[in-house]
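R.M. (postdoc): so does anyone remember the format we settled on? I'll just put the structure tokens first.
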């Protein structure tokens, strides 16, 4: 697949975001079809066990009927009644064994399905690019992987079991009732069409209201995540009460949505019970008269009432099962929506083979705009970076420096013929090979709640202690690590909360240095340290990375004075490039920023140029 233009994929994203409006959510069932096929035999044996349980339960009233008829006719004996009791005990034992089997097979299937869907979701999310995470919040993804997945598991577990159980039990009960008396059976099922009508009417409302509940849960989850991840800032600004108040508002909205859902759900279940009891009333009245008149025996009447009770469960379960399925299909549709997301940067079918890169990078007439934005962030960028070159990039905030780093690291798609590694178009190379050639340190440092060593070796788990220490020393963090309680085994807390900003940045740089890749890109990765320390670290890195291409972005000029070439960016363009001394002379923009940052007089710039 070739590279795409910066705005490629707009239509796909918008269509996905509108999914669910005017689209039948039941099409999402296709997501679980492969797992149904995979566990076909498990499901077949599970449902056979379930149906066998139902059949045995339906047989018990026939045993009771015979016993009652014997009693009515006066032919019952103690041994005969004991035999009937023995039949019931044997049936109960068989029911217990078969019930264990179907629960293990069918409910086990729902748990296996949950596991496979969760693994599939996580694996798919890991393939998505940065544009996806700019559209979807972490809270929304967490809600899909927890609340929505639980709804799918419940629907495919107890929901599916209850549906099959209710269907078979209901039809079989009607059959046994018809065997006893057809007219009485017709009276008993007369109220059923009303239940079917109201269930269909209320089910559509269940889907819409449950969808709003799940969406609000996503908002609530994201708010909690962002609150706790920013707890220090919230405390520093005394925002505890406003945050708690906002959380209460979101919680109240979530409760209101749930109450609206409960209104529909609370209507279905009592309605099912009402119709079931109405059927019971008809049977008691007319069936009782038929028994008195001798049209049916007392045993028939007792068996009929028992079957009616068995059929009442399917009627009452209809509302519950409908609710479970509506919840499950709504959540499955949301999960399917996530699985339909496609990265704009896709793996190539036949990428150009690439050996170890030398570090040569060429950027040719590169322009770029983010998805759904018209404004170009980069305009006609052209660069030739030699293998082993130390390149500095400076410029005001918003000049496009970080965007250029993102594109070099292949986090966004670029047009064909704009970026070349070792003379090869990056769109002809696999993402793995390009990213494997770059050690990238982003502006926002990401650390895990693990040990210092774990965070440094994230990209190279087999690194030995000497390599780890060498990388840490080059990043000027080794001494501070050794001063910690457990040295390199010290746990640093979530997102490195136990470290200062400068320590987190230097730890991220040590992680990149350890990879020993031909290209290292540091995107303003030392903004949290003072200028002198940054200068010392940059020199240490340059020495450590000899014969490696090194690209360092900084908003401070002085630490980049030793760079072989410095690129000055402004408004998405390269406005000047050259050595530090050259730029002090030919670029008033660069010289002005340098004097502002160092408080150096204009004469110093001339002196620097002379040296």
């Amino acid at each position: 697949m070739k590279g795409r233009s910066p705005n490629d994929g707009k239509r796909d994203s918008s269509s996905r975001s509108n999914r669910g409006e005017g689209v039948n959510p039941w099409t999402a069932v296709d997501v679980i079809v492969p797992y149904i096929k995979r566990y076909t035999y498990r499901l077949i044996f599970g449902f056979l066990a379930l149906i066998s349980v139902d059949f045995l339960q339906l047989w018990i009233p026939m045993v009771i009927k015979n016993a009652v008829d014997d009693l009515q006719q006066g032919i019952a004996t103690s041994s005969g009644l004991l035999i009937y009791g023995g039949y019931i005990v044997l049936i109960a034992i068989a029911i217990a064994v078969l019930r264990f089997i179907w629960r293990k097979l069918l409910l086990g299937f729902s748990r296996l399905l949950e596991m496979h869907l969760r693994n599939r979701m996580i694996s798919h999310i890991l393939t998505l690019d940065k544009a996806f995470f700019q559209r979807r919040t972490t809270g929304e993804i967490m809600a899909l992987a927890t609340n929505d997945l639980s709804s799918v598991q419940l629907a495919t577990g107890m929901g599916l079991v209850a549906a099959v159980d209710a269907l078979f039990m209901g039809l079989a009960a009607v059959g046994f009732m018809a065997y006893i008396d057809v007219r009485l059976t017709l009276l008993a099922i007369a109220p059923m069409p009303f239940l079917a009508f109201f269930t269909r009417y209320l089910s559509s409302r269940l889907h819409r209201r449950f969808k709003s509940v799940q969406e609000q849960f996503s908002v609530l989850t994201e708010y909690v995540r962002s609150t706790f991840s920013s707890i220090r800032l919230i405390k520093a600004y005394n925002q505890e009460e406003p945050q708690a108040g906002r959380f209460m508002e979101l919680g109240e909205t979530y409760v209101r949505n749930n109450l609206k859902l409960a209104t529909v759900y609370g209507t279905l279940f009592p309605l099912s019970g009402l119709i079931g009891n109405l059927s019971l009333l008809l049977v008691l009245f007319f069936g009782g008269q038929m028994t008195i008149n001798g049209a049916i025996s007392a045993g028939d009447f007792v068996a009929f009432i028992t079957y009616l009770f068995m059929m009442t469960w399917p009627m009452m379960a209809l509302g519950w099962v409908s609710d479970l399925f509506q919840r499950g299909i709504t959540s499955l549709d949301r999960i399917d929506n996530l699985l339909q997301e496609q990265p704009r940067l896709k793996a190539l079918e036949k990428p150009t083979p690439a050996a170890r890169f030398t570090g040569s990078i060429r950027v040719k007439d590169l322009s770029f705009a983010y998805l759904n934005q018209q404004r170009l962030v980069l305009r006609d960028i052209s660069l030739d970076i030699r293998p082993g070159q130390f390149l500095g990039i400076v410029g005001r905030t918003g000049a496009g420096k970080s965007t250029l780093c993102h594109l070099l690291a292949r986090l966004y798609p670029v047009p064909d013929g704009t970026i070349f590694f070792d003379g090869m178009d990056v769109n002809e190379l696999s993402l793995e090979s390009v990213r494997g050639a770059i050690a990238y340190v982003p502006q926002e440092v990401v650390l895990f709640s693990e040990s210092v060593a774990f965070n440094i070796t994230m990209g190279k788990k087999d690194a030995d202690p000497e390599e780890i220490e060498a990388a840490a020393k080059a990043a000027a963090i080794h001494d501070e690590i050794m001063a910690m309680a457990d040295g390199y085994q010290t746990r640093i807390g979530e997102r490195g909360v136990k470290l200062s900003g400068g320590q987190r940045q230097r730890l991220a740089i040590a992680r990149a240095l350890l990879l020993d890749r031909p290209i290292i890109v540091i995107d303003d990765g030392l903004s949290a340290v003072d200028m002198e320390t940054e200068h010392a670290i940059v020199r240490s890195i340059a020495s450590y990375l000899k014969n490696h291409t090194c690209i360092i972005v900084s908003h401070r000029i002085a630490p980049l004075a030793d760079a072989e070439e410095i690129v000055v960016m402004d408004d998405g363009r390269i406005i000047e490039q050259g050595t530090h001394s050259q730029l002090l002379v030919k670029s008033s923009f660069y010289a002005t920023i340098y004097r502002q940052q160092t408080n150096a007089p204009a004469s110093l710039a001339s002196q620097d140029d002379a040296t």
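R.M.: ...and that's the designed sequence above, right after the tokens. Also worth knowing: Confidence is low (pLDDT under 50) at residues 1-22, 602-611. Residues 213 and 531 are 51 Å apart (CA to CA).
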